[in-house]
Amino acid sequence: MARKYRKYLLNFLFILLFAIVAIYFSIKDEYSEIVDLITNINQYSILIVFVISLIPFIIEGYILQLLSKIYKKDFNVKQGIQNAFIGGFFSGITPLASGGQFAQVFHLAECGLSTTASINILLMDFLVYQSTLVVYTSIVLFFKYAEYVLRVSSIFSLAIIGFIINIVVIGILFLAAKSSRAQLFVTDTVLKIFSKLKLIKNYESQKLAFEQKVVQFRTELKTLLDNKKVLISTLLLMTLRLTISFCIPFLCLKLLDRTVDISIIDCICVTAFITLITAFIPIPGASGGSEGTYVLLYSSFVTKALASSSMLIWRFATYYFILVVGAVAFIWSKRKVKK
Predict the structure, then answer these.
(1) CA of residue 3 relative to chain centroid, distance
(2) d(CA 202, CA 251)
(3) Which residues contact 257 (CB under 8 A, 6 or more apart)?
(4) Least CB-packed of 3, 69, 246, 299 within 10 Å?
(5) What's the start-to-end Cα distance of the chain, in Å?
(6) What is the rounded distance in angstroms from the CA atom of residue 328 to the CA atom of residue 89?
(7) Can you give the pLDDT at residue 8?
(8) H helices within the chain, ranges in order?
(9) What is the DSSP letter of 188?
């Protein structure tokens, strides 16, 4: 147990280190201007940003409740919201958000769901999230590609790579779930090529793991399709969740400068690209990468001082504040279990 907490502490120290370095390089050239911008904001206005940053997790809690009620009819919204914040906390302190779902499985089990049901719920949540994000970013790219490839050409290619990876992941899973021929192609061709290129170890175990995931994916896809009301509700809620999350930088910019010339649509699009780019940064919370990517992208629309100032508010509200709330939710859940 002590070793596990030591690992989390080290992760947190890495987060702080990378964040401090990224913030330093983001604000060092416009330090005095950034201080002036932030100190002139109404403190109650900043509180609004922090409150709004909670809403995506509350919506995620409703999504988890809808999915959990397929297996446990008395699963309530409060448990779903608590699970969402616990997932946010552990995703934020582990590389590639790898610890979030493990913690959520344990919490769902504490709420009376079996481990199998808990895993299935989170798999369905992943399906809904990944599908919504792919559709969302596809629309963004369709309407904004020509403009953004000129505005932010230096980093836009990373967003395209992130988009392609998301498309490939969800596409392979859907194809393998629907077609046994596609499943055989992945296991007997793709994985063998990866094995020969030394990209994966132990071909047989990886093949078995993929086959098991496809079977589970196929089962949960059928469960979702059989519960059309739940499917439609979760897709709409996930779209709302992403939209609110992507709108937060717009609010930060407007708090700093009401006359700033950037539309809410542009903010939604840019923040969607930040999500695509930073999803594969292996540092806990994508620290360093998130801050740097934000400033690089938004500096194409507003001054660097304004981009850096809004980044500080956005990052503290949507990441560090969520870590605190998630930690409180986790501690509270453990106290209830002990009682």
Answers:
(1) 27
(2) 49
(3) 37, 302, 306
(4) 3
(5) 20
(6) 9
(7) 64
(8) 2-27, 31-39, 43-52, 55-68, 77-92, 100-110, 115-151, 153-178, 180-185, 191-196, 203-226, 228-256, 264-278, 289-298, 304-315, 321-338
(9) I
Tokens 């596809």 correspond to what residue? 138
Residue 82 pLDDT more than 70? yes
pLDDT digits (tens, 9 = 90+) for 109-145: 999 998 888 888 998 898 899 889 988 888 888 888 8
Residue with tokens 């509180």: 47
> What pLDDT score does 20 carry?
75
Q: Which of 255, 238, 237, 234 is nearest to 317 (CA)?
A: 255
Q: For 180-229, what is each residue's pLDDT tens digit? A: 777 777 777 878 887 777 767 788 888 888 788 778 778 887 888 888 99
**Amino acid code (one letter) for 227:** N
- Diameter of the chain measured on Cα atoms: 62
Tokens, residue 110: 């504490």
91 Rama sector, left if φ>0, alpha if ψ -120 to 50, beta otherwise = alpha
Cα distances (angstroms) measured from residue 10 to each of 5, 90, 207, 208: 9, 14, 33, 33
Q: What does 262-317 look like in DSSP terms, one character per residue?
A: --HHHHHHHHHHHHHHHTT--SGGGTTHHHHHHHHHHTTTS-HHHHHHHHHHHHII
Nearest Cα to Cα of residue 98 among 276, 281, 326: 281
* b/e 150-170 (16+ beta carbons within 10 angstroms → b): eebeebbebbbebbeebeeeb
Residue 314, classified by CB atoms within 10 Å of its CB into exposed (0-12), middle (13-18) or buried (19+), is buried
Residue type, 323: L
User: Is the whole model's pTM more than 0.70, yes or no?
Assistant: yes
What phi and psi values does residue 99 have, to the nearest 5 degrees? -90, -10
Q: Residue 5 corresponds to which tokens in the numbers above?
A: 């907490």
Residues 8, 286, 311, 22, CA torsion sign:
positive
